[in-house]
Amino acid sequence: MADAISRIAGLDFASVTPERFARIVKGLSGKEIAAIARDGALRKRVLDEVFGRMERQFRPEAAGTLTALLRWRITGSGGNPEAVYETRIADGVCTVREGRSEAAPRVTFVLGDAEFLKLVSGNASPVTLFVLRKVKVVGDVALAAALTRYFDIPRPGA
């Protein structure tokens, strides 16, 4: 597990493509992801990078006139608190911020670190995670189901 932590900690995220990140996540066990999540500074660095990329991977042509606030609650583990990020889609632009605003989200996703990383790296099906109750969706379920159309989700490959 120390190998997984040092492998992720040593990444220069600026040079890692979404596809390479997806392959890295695919190669991690649940225990390794849990170990990464327990390292508070590394967890924050990974979450900040993933959410920072959302703006770049947004597909405005697919979103059209959609206006929505999405709240992501990544449950804490190993003494780490819950992490909250918000994704706002409006006027063909996606913006992301850390923390909870006063605005009411159209949909809120509640999931653990491992499920979140697998979801955003294309290593898990959102439908499967929902059916298995690994992700809780509060609010507009139809928007949640359509969300993958609005972002370029990496394909981890073999």
Automatic annotation (TrEMBL):
InterPro entries: SCP2_sterol-bd_dom, SCP2_sterol-bd_dom_sf
Coiled coil residues, start to end: none
Top-rank taxon: Bacteria
All copies of domain SCP2, residue ranges: 60-151
Any Pfam family the entry gives: SCP2
Protein name stated in the entry: SCP2 sterol-binding domain-containing protein
Organism: Streptomyces huasconensis
Classification of source organism: Bacteria, Bacillati, Actinomycetota, Actinomycetes, Kitasatosporales
